[in-house]
Each structure stands twice: as C-alpha cells, then as structure tokens.
Write a structure and sequence with these properties.
Blueprint: E1 4-5, H1 6-15, E2 24-29, E3 36-42, E4 46-56, E5 59-68, E6 87-91, H2 98-117, H3 122-132, E7 137-144, H4 152-158, H5 160-177
Parallel strand pairs: 2-7
Antiparallel strand pairs: 1-5, 2-3, 3-4, 4-5, 6-7
Helix pairs in contact: 2-3
Length: about 180
C-alpha cells in the first residue's frame, strides 16, 4: 500500500479512464481525530481512502491511498445509490488557459439556458453541467459534516491496515502543523 498526498489521489481519480458518472462517495467526520474521512469508489477504477483536515480556511492537508481495485458486491451496498441518495460531488481539473475557460463557460451557459427552457430534473441538470465542465469524476455522495454517515464505519472496518496507516500519517501532519495544540 502506497500512502500519498491527498491531492495525488485526486489526480489519479481525474486521470482514470473510467466512466465519470459511475463514481460514488462517502464522507464524514474522522473517528477520534481532527478532519474528515472520504471514500471514493468506482466499479472498475477502485476504492480510494483520503483523510484530510483544514489547516486553515485556505489550506487543506491530508493523505490517501487506494484500498481496493474495484467496488465489488460486498462494498457496493456501503456506497450511496446512484438514484437520489444524498448529495452530489465532483472532481475536476481547472481549464488550461483563458480560451478553454471561455469555451467551458459557453457550454455551462448553454446548458443552463436549455434546462431553463425545458422540463428537467435536478439530477439531469447536474449530469449535464458535469459534462459541460468535463468533470472526470462525479456522482452521488453521502456526507455528514458533524458525524459519520451510515456505511463509513463499516468501510473503515473493511480496510483496517489502511485506516491505521493513514491515521498515523495524518496525526503526524496535524501534530507538525500544531493544529492539535489549541491556544497557547
């Protein structure tokens, strides 16, 4: 198991040649520490675990690893359903240059115009917007800001070695940044 910076994991997710809409996520408060746990899963691209914390409002730090090669039948029920289960998430790259940014903005404007003129569903709008911004990964997410959503503890129990190693690495980051000291 290779532990890496959390941004490297997200880069791997964005570069995966997997169907962008098949990703699903599960995230919530980290058990016994500062920060959050995030599991991202795709039927063929695998399952990734990220542990992050906000060093300050502008700087998120964390670690992550790939914990499974695919979402198998045992893991699948732990992730949110594709149909209307909770919120949505997206991972995407920023535009390369001004021309690409303008082209993307035009696609977003056109998507919103079309959805404004025709009957649509929130899920259809979300999917079409993700296509307009060329998101390489998006889907349903179960997220709890102040708690741990159903399934997060069970996923943690399925990958105890990864949980222990990432927890230790994240605790070292938190300690090195002095986030755990409080006010002095």
């Amino acid at each position: 198991m290779r532990i890496r910076d959390w941004t490297d994991i997200l880069e791997e997710v964005t570069e995966a040649s997997a169907d962008a809409s098949d990703w699903r996520g599960l995230s919530g408060r980290r058990d016994g520490g500062v920060g959050e746990d995030l599991y991202l899963g795709h039927p063929r691209a695998g399952v990734f675990l990220l542990k992050t914390y906000a060093r300050n409002p502008y700087d998120v730090r964390g670690v992550g690893t790939r914990v499974a090669r695919k979402v198998d039948d045992d893991l699948e029920p732990l992730f949110p359903d594709r149909e209307g289960d909770g919120g949505r998430f997206a991972v995407r790259r920023g535009p390369e240059d001004e021309a690409e940014a303008e082209e993307m903005a035009t696609r977003v404007e056109e998507t919103l115009r079309v959805h404004g003129e025709a009957p649509t569903t929130p899920d259809d709008l979300f999917t079409d917007l993700m296509d307009a911004v060329e998101s390489p990964a998006y889907g349903p997410m179960r997220y709890e800001l102040s708690d741990r959503p159903e399934g997060l503890d069970e996923l943690s129990e399925r990958f105890p070695d990864a949980e222990a190693l990432l927890t230790e690495e994240l605790d070292d980051l938190v300690s090195a940044d002095g986030v755990d000291r409080g006010f002095e």
